[in-house]
Design goal:
The chain is mainly β and about 525 residues long. The chain contains six helices and 23 strands. Helices cover about 15% and strands about 45% of the residues. The chain is elongated and about 145 Å long. The two termini are about 80 Å apart.
Amino acid sequence: MQSRKSTLRRLLLAAAATSAIATGAHAQAAPDPRDAEIQELKAQVQALAAKLDRLEARANTPPVIQTPTAPASTPPAAIAVIAGGKPGIQSADGRFTANLHAVMQFDAADFQQATPGPTTADFRRGAAAADTSHARDLSSGTNFRRARLGIDGRAFGDWDYNALIDFGGAGEEDAAHIQELWVQYSGLKPFHVKVGAYPPSLGLEDQGSTNGMLFLERPAVADIARSLAGGDFREAAEIWGNGNWWYVNAAVTGRLVGVVNSQATGVSQPFDSQLAFIGRLGFAPIRTEHGMLEVGVHGSYVDRPADSGGPDTAPGATRYSVIFQERPELRVDGTRLISTGAISAQHAGEVGLEAAGQYGPVFLQSEYETFTIQRRNGTVGLSDPEFRGYYVEGSYSLTGERRRFNAANWAFDAPAVNHPFSIADRTWGAWELAARYSDIDLNYHAGAPGTAPAPDAVRGGEQKIWAGGLNWYPNAVVRFMLDYQDVRIDRLSPSATTFATPTGAQIGQHYHAISFRSQFAF
């Protein structure tokens, strides 16, 4: 290669020399037009020589090896996550999330009642006269108390949302209906604004997750309190805020979302929906790594009961009414045993006190509620009724876990499962003992047995329940519950004619119930 380049160089130099000689010869003679061509050829030869020098220098230089540059990594558009057993997805920047929900609560119960007798001798009755047969023979069996599917998450960083559909029910499963459907703006921390269908905050039991309750159902008094102006599938708008030591909320509420039940009957459309207000204030004066104390007050006020009759309501019929009633803290049978009946009302209200404490594995909680109804148009000779109730409940963790406090709901939830059930690892999950006493009195000027009720009397009945339970949490999504209840109903017949009883007869009863729940929830 090198000799070939040298030869080429010699040829170029010889050509250049020949051109020079020819140029000199022509310079002696007369000007020749070929001189310009010769000069151009000389320039071309010199350019070729320079190019050859450059090629030779490049050939003697070691080659430079370039390493390809790796392309910059692109963040994924979405990230799949499973947190606490709940599957979800989120954007890479965390501003968008979507989490899936599923809840199965399958209940079984056995009611231990006296054998039913003829209605002429067996005076046990339910909340209404139509409940007479069921009240004397509560249905032992099973049902899906809750069967829910839903999605919740965040959009654009500051907007939270939740959509939850339920197929469960009391006694029988209901048709699919809206359980919760709301949107919330959280860009004004520590405050949040929520609107849609959901239970506005009204106490500890009201806001505690049904996936982590101590018993299969809430205390009856708590359910009655939340049903006045809040409760499940209530349409509402609310502002709430919280910190480590405090919680406050205020809400305006309206009607309940319509639900078609197992008898294919639903909520009738009112002529004007109920208008009510809810508020709650909570404090945690003691909060340490070993325990905490919570105290608070809450209340609701119905400014305008729903107009269920409309402009053509017959004289003497009830157009605007309020009713307090509840089941005996178990929904395998949906029969109610206590009820005030419909009371014509101008306004209604409820005020409650709440307190809860936890120290290590020990937990204690209680709420006291007072209910009032202002009769419509100040009916002459009829005083405004008042009712009261309370509950006390507690638990002890056999495996040492503590119930968790949720500051967003300002309520206690199920304990964390520190050692999930595993035969291989010889770990047994979390075990919890629970006890509760509840008392709700819906009697007002009830009078003595064997007497007719006074004009302003309300014989709604008093319900007292002792309950004990054992809860097992194999892991964060599975739970099994075993409950025992001692139920006493004390109620005088509101109407001998309507209830087909002697005047002032005792229509209450005393029975026991054993129930079991299998739960899968995430």
